[in-house]
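Preliminary data (for renewal application), potassium ion complex.
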Amino acid sequence: MFQTVPEGAPVLTAEAMRAAEERAIAEGSSVAELMEHAGTGVADWVHRLAAGSEVLILCGPGNNGGDGYVAARALAHRGVPVRVAALGEPKTEAAAQARAAWGEPVESLSGETEAAPVLVDALFGTGLTRAIDATLAETMRRLVAAARLSFAVDLPSGVDADAGNTFGCDLPGYDLTLALGALKPAHLLLPAGASSRTVRLVEIGLGEIDGPVRTLERPGIAAPRRDAHKYSRGMVVVISGPMHGASELAARAAYRAGAGYVLLLTGGLPNPPHAIVRQRWSEGALDDERIGAVVTGPGLGRDDRAREKLDAALASDRALVIDGDALHLLDLDMLKDRAAPVVLTPHAGEFDALFGAGQGSKIDRALDGARRANAVVVFKGADTVMAAPDGRVTVAPMGNSWLSVAGTGDVLAGAIAAMLAQSSVDALGAASAGVWLHGTAARMLDRCFLADELADALALAYERAR
Ligand SMILES: NC(=O)C1=CN([C@@H]2O[C@H](COP(=O)(O)OP(=O)(O)OC[C@H]3O[C@@H](n4cnc5c(N)ncnc54)[C@H](OP(=O)(O)O)[C@@H]3O)[C@@H](O)[C@H]2O)[C@@H](O)CC1
Ligand SMILES: [K+]
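Predicted structure:
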């Protein structure tokens, strides 16, 4: 299971959406006009996919409900059988107008509401401020489960648009979420994002939308140039520790993600693949000017020897990927004055250990971490968020659930290092490309796999990255 969302699309908070709405109104539009676009855009999708089946639209009291009334009218106009069930009277002028224009009967939404084969949830969108009533949540779950096809208008009702939480409520999963004007954090962040397996954008007349937070996109990396040699393709050094396997995985992944030369600093025995060059750790090991990126952390351990290696990596002027154990040894002050790029790749536990538990959404926290560390932070999880100190953020769609297995983090560290070493993109671009390759490799396998196989599948993902 994984998520499909528009690639490279801006992600806006509820406040930024309201600002975009105000800009559009200042330029001559109106809420009613935007709502007309939104509702007809929803109706287009429903009409296309419902194939003539009866549609039940649930309308809430705000403008999300207003979109629902517009969609009902547009569908009925095209001859689709539509019923509307509402949660009380509209509370906004635009929604009241939309209901009046619908002009047909409106049922009162209750536990008795009869299900239909197609369900459209227009109860709440970006205006939800608190948990929805438990009885209402139960009714929603029942009606979504009974439908052959279910749509969420703008957002699944019951989610906090910015934080991506559900106020503790268990929400149903929709077939299609139609994001109005732009994506919101809750389309992507867990737990809310789990309700939106597929998200599509509906244009509502807000004009050009932009912002520093975007969804992950295909990195556009190419095959090696004709005049390429192993160093121009990127030399990656992986610093090993007592758990050799983790660093072996990172080294293998670096090759499969296109690095030209991978050196593993290890005391372990020579193992296949023999393409990985092995040397023992030594003081000047990172002096080679040709080194494009260094991975430290996978299998490093947390003892004095590990600290010594991390300190040497930090003292070098090489680009660094810091993962696993090294994140527990890292002092953020050590990164302050570093000129060469650093990518930190914490999962939730490592993130808390580094930055503290903190408030705000995963996007806010990743950004705060990046600024404090002066480094790109890849806050891993099923909903991986990458942030740079300059405020740019990339959010990956929910990853393939088979990734939840030991060693996949080591593979990611190797893939990011390969990107950092070989490409002309900056650290956020390298991190994003690494996450894209990693996620795409998992999608291509889409079964129970070993991290070794995932590392190898990066090469197949690379083929699709152009
Ligand atoms: N931005 C744009 O450009 C455009 C946005 N559009 C659409 O507008 C949507 C945002 O509309 P919105 O602001 O009216 O909020 P919405 O989500 O309908 O809900 C607010 C209502 O719900 C109520 N309420 C809240 N929590 C509740 C709870 N737990 N349980 C019960 N009630 C609760 C709240 O009442 P109150 O909190 O005052 O009690 C209020 O009445 C957006 O998602 C998109 O679909 C398009 O139409 C056009 C252009
Ligand atoms: K909704």
